């Protein structure tokens, strides 16, 4: 029976052309390569090589066999990847969310409910891509800021998030009890980096504003404390202590898009995905 390891050496011989070069590239002895070539030829049952006293090379049949073996090895590798990926998916619940806040409460719930499974989460600010990944079975649970129902999906409201802006008490915006993005547009703001679709929301709704984007949470917190730049928060954000210490005030943003309801969406054939 054909052996994939032998076939790999056979394909390598077709690539490198000499037994010596194959031995160097694969870190095995030349006599071992020689025995493998003989064994492969015996398995095929037809001559694969032209041999002279000091040289061995593939004949036309051997070249054809090498190309087919290369395809076979690639197929075997792909088979391994698919089987391992399939097994991983059987033991993993994959969640893709449009924003970080829903994950803060949902992932612990999944972890507690499914001790025997790994929980994988991903943040994606492309809402259409999340839908597409759910339909393609690339994620098990999607979290979106709108409902999405059809004959194959289950959609459940999970929680609400309300966007606000935080400013120092002497800031010009501090006199308002509520604001719209039109009123904020033009003021430069601090912005955290991993905030999902909120990032595109801010840049789309505040085209005249510039953003100091921070990837480090500590640096972001320090800038909130020390700078006068407005920043954003929500009823779900966990940096309220930093905002209180900075003696800022929080002003709700009243735009309809700034107040969202998140929905857990999953396929009906994955009913067990939720705790």
Write the topology of this structure.
Blueprint: H1 4-16, H2 19-26, H3 30-44, E1 49-51, E2 56-58, H4 60-90, E3 92-97, H5 101-113, E4 118-123, H6 127-135, E5 141-144, E6 153-168, H7 181-184, E7 189-192, H8 197-205, E8 211-214, H9 217-226, E9 231-234, H10 240-245, E10 248-252, E11 259-267
Helix pairs in contact: 1-2, 1-3, 1-4, 2-3
Radius of gyration over C-alpha positions, nearest whole angstrom:
30 Å
Portion of residues within helices: 40-55%
Into which percentage range does the β-strand content fall?
A: 15-25%
Distance linking N and C termini: 49 Å
| Secondary-structure element string | HHHEEHEHEHEEHEHEHEHEE
Structural class label: alpha/beta
- Low confidence ranges: none
Q: What characterizes the major β-sheet?
A: 7 strands, mixed
Number of strands: 11
Global shape? elongated
Mean pLDDT: 89
Total helical segments: 10
Write structural notes for this entry.
The chain starts with a helix and ends in an 8-residue tail after the last strand. The protein contains 10 helices and 11 strands. Helix 1 crosses helix 2 (19-26), helix 1 crosses helix 3 and helix 1 (4-16) packs across helix 4 (60-90). The mean pLDDT is 89. Helix content is 43%, strand content 23%. It is elongated and about 95 Å long. It has helices spanning 4-16, 19-26, 30-44, 60-90, 101-113, 127-135, 181-184, 197-205, 217-226, 240-245; strands at 49-51, 56-58, 92-97, 118-123, 141-144, 153-168, 189-192, 211-214, 231-234, 248-252, 259-267. Strands 3, 4, 5, 6, 9, 10 and 11 form a 7-stranded mixed sheet that branches. Strands 1-2 form a two-stranded antiparallel ribbon. The protein has 275 residues and is of the alpha/beta class.
